[in-house]
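agent: user wants the structure for Integrase from Streptomyces albidocamelliae. delegating to structure tool.
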Amino acid sequence: MPAAALKPKPLPTQSTAQHPVLFDSPYEPVIKRPLPAGRPREWYVAHNRRLKAMRLAIALLDSGVHMPGRVRNETIRSTAEEIGMRPPSDTTCHMVRAFMRYSR
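agent: tool returned. relaying tokens verbatim.
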């Protein structure tokens, strides 16, 4: 028996399926769970800051801004206002640029 006959068939993809593969659209975020209790306050502050910076980095990338070195704090703050977020601090703006840098 040839070796090719022993290989399992791969799952169908968008280009090879007889029926179109459905994507989740529009995207629904996962259900939020409470944060674990008993951590120091600094942990919660850093965690929420990272989440905010990630949301802002995604919004900037979706809007077509791809050069983190050229994004000024004012641009990040105006994007935060557009998506209904409070204006980020300078530290959070720095973190947004870092996330954009590492996503490449």
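agent: one observation worth passing along. Residues 6 and 17 are 22 Å apart (CA to CA).
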